Amino acid sequence: MKILITGSAGFIGFHAAQEFLRRGWDVAGLDNFNDYYSVQLKRARAAQLPFCLYENDICDLNALQFIFAEETPDVVLHLAAQPGVRYSITHPFVYQKTNIEGFLNVLECCRHAPKVPKLVFASSSSVYGGNKKMPFEESDQVDTPISLYAATKKANELMAHTYSHLYKMQTIGLRFFTVYGPWYRPDMALSLFADAMLHDRPIKVFNHGDMLRDFTYVDDIVDGMRTDFRSTTSSTSGTTAARS
Length: 244
Ligand SMILES: NC(=O)c1ccc[n+]([C@@H]2O[C@H](COP(=O)([O-])OP(=O)(O)OC[C@H]3O[C@@H](n4cnc5c(N)ncnc54)[C@H](O)[C@@H]3O)[C@@H](O)[C@H]2O)c1
Description:
Blueprint (H helix, E strand, L loop, with lengths): L1 E5 L4 H12 L3 E6 L7 H9 L5 E3 L5 H11 L3 E4 L8 H4 L1 H21 L5 E7 L23 H20 L3 E6 L2 E2 L8 H10 L17 E2 H13 L6 E5 L3
Parallel strand pairs: 1-2, 1-4, 2-3, 4-5, 5-6, 6-9, 7-8
Helix pairs in contact: 1-8, 3-5, 5-6
This protein binds nicotinamide-adenine-dinucleotide.
The site of nicotinamide-adenine-dinucleotide has 27 residues, from helix 1, helix 5 and strand 5.
């Protein structure tokens, strides 16, 4: 089986790539190595991955079409996105570009591929937004995103559903709940806490510390991805929530 992983130099993409290699899959990657956080960290991850990694942007449709033609993947694991809830307040257009336009490019490339691949993509627990009912469930309505980031992830789910309906593509959205583990993203809470502790600074806590949050270990996320690949032969569209 051949898998194309977008965002393969990213935190989750790196772990997913390693796991699929271990399982004997043929893996190719794509990443634009943007500077949202340390490019050095992304390069260090990529240096561990012994496969063809295209340095391209998913917003470049021509490049994406070329990669799809070269690789003819059975599965596309689409993880490349602009992540981060807070950053979407200050940089809204990056989200529109990468998470909406880039996502549409991926859908179009899948649709027009001679062998239409299964598309598994990263959604987010943030789509549950203002929902009050706990615990969250996949069947809950998710119509109240409270950040632009969440709105783009919800939009991805809708776009994938449309393509599944129109073109009988198999698509699966995975709603990750704050993922942590080795090679972690430096912009996320546990990294920021650890960094503050190492440098003897107080940790920054929002909402006066009055919050609860689910964290998911990255190996469990990767495990969930494998399960989804196996379990989708009959359905055309779906969403799965990974919970800690
Ligand atoms: N980490 C989490 O807790 C979490 C939670 C919910 C959802 N997600 C989603 O999971 C996916 C992976 O998250 P992550 O934590 O590994 O993030 P990450 O930022 O470490 O990885 C994303 C990778 O995509 C690349 N990328 C970004 N824009 C691109 C573009 N236009 N073209 C090509 N490559 C591009 C980045 O360079 C990066 O290496 C994202 O879609 C994110 O929204 C993550």
